[in-house]
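User: I'm new to structure prediction. If I give you an amino acid sequence, what do you actually give back? Let's try with this one:
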Amino acid sequence: MSKRLLLATDGSPAAHRAVDLAIALAAALGARMHVLHVLAPQPAVGLAADAIEGKPHAWRAIQHARGDLAEVQEKASRAGVPCHVEHAFDNRPHAAIAAAAMSHHCDLIVMGAHARDAPLATDVTRQVIIHCDVPVLICP
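Assistant: Good question. You get back a string of structure tokens that encode the predicted 3D arrangement of the chain. For your 140 residues, that looks like this:
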């Protein structure tokens, strides 16, 4: 029986479906949820452009992630599911997801089948499955 679920989200439609599934599953099992939104670090050339524009890309990305995570936390709260949220920067989202699952002693990873701009199952999800011993539930 799963007592700690890791939900990996990126704010995509598939991730939103995974949010609903993870919350329902956690509520049914009496499990806690840890929610992770992985952001890609900005390349150095982008940092220079941000300095000129005055609005850092990283700041906008963090604001987007915080908004997405706040929505998840609110839904979990309404369902009575204990929920901890965080965002992380990593060029290898699968590594950040696997590390979070291990560090939070999660029994199950829940994630969407597609990322915001590309099929997630063909890359990030596959890499999570390969590099992590925690079972992965993929939500289409």
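You can read the tokens as a compact description of the fold. Here is one thing that stands out. The mean pLDDT is 85.
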